[in-house]
Design goal:
The complex is a heterotrimer of chains A (282), B (334) and C (545). Chain A is an all-alpha fold and 282 residues long. Chain A is 75% helix and 0% strand. The chains are: A mainly alpha (282), B mainly alpha (334), C alpha+beta (545). At the B-C interface, helix 2, helix 3, helix 5, helix 7 and helix 12 of B face helix 1, helix 7, helix 8 and helix 14 of C.
Chain lengths: 282, 334, 545
Amino acid sequence: MTISLASALSRKRLHAPFAALGIPPSVALAFIILALVIGWSLVPGLFSGHDPFVGVPADKLQAPSIAHWFGTDQLGRDLYARVVHGTASSVSSALIAVVIGLFVGGLIGLLAGFLGGWVDIIFARLVDVLLAIPSFLLAVIVVTALGFDTINAAIATGVSAVAVFARVMRSEVIKTRQATFVEASFLSGGSRWHILLRHVLPNASRSVLPLAVLRFGLSILVIAGLAFLGYGDPPPASDWGLLISIGKDYMKWPWLIYAPAIAIIATVLSLNRISRWLRKTD
Amino acid sequence: MRNAYLNYAGKRLLQAAVVVLLAYVFTFLVVSILPGDPITNVLHDPQNAFTMAQIQEIIEAQGLNDPVALQLWHALSGFVTGDLGLSMRSSRPVATLISEVLPSTLILASSALAVALVLAGLIAYGSQFLPRRFGQGFVRSLPSLFLSVPTFVIGLVLIHLFGFQLGLFMVIDPNSFWATVFASIALGIPISAQIAEVLVANLDNESAQEYAAVARARGLRQTPLFFRHFLKPSALPVVTVVALMVGEVLGGALITETVFGRTGIGNLVQRSVVTQDLPVLQAVVSLAAMVFVLVNLIADLVYPLLDPRVKILGATAVRSSASTSDTASPTVTV
Amino acid sequence: MTDHLTSLRLSRRSLLAGSAALTIASFSGVSAFAQAPAGGDIVFLINSLGDTWIPNNSAISSFQGHIWGHVSDKLVYVDVDGTPSPWLAESWEQNDTATEFTLKLKSGVTFSDATPLDAAAVIANLDIWYAGRTDDGINPIGLFPKTYDHAEAVDPLTVKVVFKAPTLGFIPTLGYHGSILISPKTLATPATEQADLSKTAGSGPYVVDSWKEGDFVKLMKRADYNWGPAAVGHTGPAFLDSITYKLVAEQSLRVAAVQAGQADIAYNASPQELQSLQEAGFTVATPRYLGFVNGWAINTKLAPYNDVKVRQALQVAINRQEIIDTVYTPDWKLATSFIQSNVPGATDHSALLAYDAAKAEALLDEAGWVKGADGIRVKDGVELLLTLHSNPYLATSKSVDELIAQQLGRIGWKVEIRAYDVVTFGEKVHCAGDTIPAYEVTRSFIDAGTVAGILTDANKGENWFNLGESDARINDLRDQIAGAGSLEVRAPLLDELKAYVLEQGYFIPRTQIVQRIYVQSPEVKGVVYNGVAYASYYAATKGTA
């Protein structure tokens, strides 16, 4: 981090305000978009004056205009308001998915890598099974079992990400465990848990963090896909994937698809950009 | 040496069989959590006007209330002997259902992989030889963009533009040539991004090597340089990624087939999921796992033969480092 | 848009050329029908092809029903107005108590596997409709009279059917979509074989040429067919050479494909698009089936709907005209009662269903539901809440629920909408379920006498309103209607029942139901809709000539 900051300064690039922070302009833009998305999900009312659930039936299917930035839907509801109010559910469900993947997968990887032996072999088979089932198919199967709503779609997405986190964590743990400073600590009589918490975990998390950010973006896509197929919350919820799925029934009024699609693409693109930047600066 | 190789191959084959079997059991356990099933589902259709008591009677008569352990035992013993059972939804053999739709999915998957490889190759070429300031930056940002667009959006846009506006294909005939091409593009785009990332990283690595500078200094032209010196050494990691992508293609087919209205495995899963047709889901999941495990097994077994530098004991290590490329892949400047 | 149209015309021309070639090919083989209007092939885009093809389990399906209607015949024809007329049963007689019926069959009718359609075949069908073969996975036909006792062959073309109790609805039921005649040879095969559509033989004007599960069903004309229903005005072989039912799941794609001339009929279009389609010259058909209107059966055991005032308030708090204006088009009709207005003997009770928000508010005030600070009515610390479970069998149900939520919200009535998929809906939501305040009904029937079976739990009744035997007046009307030996006796009883059910707020109608919407190329003519709103292309032709 410090190194990249120094090098950025020394290069004296344009875009002084960003350069001063060591942030490329595209990353800055990504952060701005993300801030907006977080704003939408925390205080949607602040960003949109229209009611996302109650529309004016007579104003149905209007094209985007000053009054309705993204146009109106088939019941005369403001689409911009629906996109803004759908953010919280779309984003928080992806967050839940990542947290599940991170914790369950991380724990499995940590234990497998750190303890080795039989634990490693059993976990490795489990991870193999999860990896062998295409992740979207796995998510679909799990959400079928849990019942169709957005939280369950989030859980299913999290389950489908467990294997990836477990594998990365395991290989990082093994790498760190073999590093000289850890061995030194071990020889100097540090307890196993002390080493795990003090050395292994911080080192391993350094490569797991960018993966988590990347997965966050991916989870938005997966959950949108599940919502598109009808496995998420039903209307009048306005998750982005659901909005697109409703929009496809009204293809003559294409903004019903394009508006939520752009919200998804911008958010995921920003997250990908930030993930890459994190990885690079590390 | 030869003995060690056979030993290794045997061990991997056994592991693969265990994984497929576990995938079958896993699906059974997950799906049978819920009490619903397609037969009860038909009975509940309000047009049938059955009362709850009548529905209970019919369910009893069909033995749908057997204990779960017994049902699993029946299913598993059938599966091991190659009998996939009957679909609860349509009362037809699962094997027939799958063999009816498999060709369509194989065509889609293979052409999507082809599209992905071509796209990845173009991106890789552009990343090395386009002007640094303009074209290259754009091309290098493509994988990131491709990974951010939902497959169904790509599909809907393609259908809207080429199916309706330009009338290039009949939307109701999804198996026609052009419809298949566009479905493959929709499915291939996200896949191409992941291949391209690995490819670009490897190319950057190769082009930084001394021999590349030497070759350039000797006046070797771009195209031969690309193909002979850059692409060839990158072949192994690409094979690895493609093998891993097989699962992604199958998963993506679920959405793409739905969007384009193709009757394939993904579509079969969709229909089985909404009615909880357990026997079909179990068969498809274990089939997908089997394909994934086999493809990766072949990649693993071919690896030591392809590249003499890879020793058998080291084979797994090499592959796992390549396969975690989603964390270690290159940074792309947007 | 203009670009769009030129490309459409092009593809239509190529399609026509293709069908012309096919026509020539088929006519070179069969030249006996030269006087019939030209052949032709049509493509019908459908949103699902359902689950199984076991005839008993799929005959009533909104999807497979279309195919069965062409592949099989019925004993009685029931037209769009609910009038029964002879078909394969040339005539029938009943005794005074409506417990014995004698059917005379048309002679010379065969199934497509060459089995004759005689008394034995009819009895085999009656038996399996009544009882199914449940241990083999073949269900009974739900609406077949449960009073059926047995049937016997008087001679090869005469069947006597005996019931345990008066069954006025028997003859109309024979024209119901569940009552399709299938070859006894097919019926004798196990369920797994019946599930293969190509192995099933009916006596209809078309036979299955080829099919692929979840993809398409192609029907070919049966050349020796000459026993069509007289009421249709044509009894010979069908005119169209083939009908292809092609699955296209996306609603917008189906309509767009018809607009582009890539297909002839799109099933279940979005109501919003109908007007512009009509203006563009396409034929739009919204036939109503005979049956209950779309509405809620209220669970009278569950608070606060055990209070008649709350139910009555709900009855007038819904602006039904706004539903039609917003979600539907003028092709949809206001409910006039809780059965559709085209059912024979239906009477108009629309005065009871007029929108009156002030009256609703007054009723709620009387019942002790007072508006709280947030505008939602409260009584004893409980919010006035209506939980709706959107009906997964009706595509527009969710939109209507959302609109009603807006309407009720204005008078302080909170609405929660839950939408389940078909499976979960079937598991969790059913009439008079303990936690279900309002069950959304979409149900067709052929005979209005059916209503007697839903009112209470007597005689395996469906007990829609969870009344049990608690309402003496309902019990009395139920017994009189069920025991009626003639329509003249029954009509005034039904009228009285309908008024009572609506006054008490037991049933809350939303709109008359159009469950099947057809968008059709103007080139297809002569389509006939029957009493359950299925389109029949038996007498249809295609082409501008």
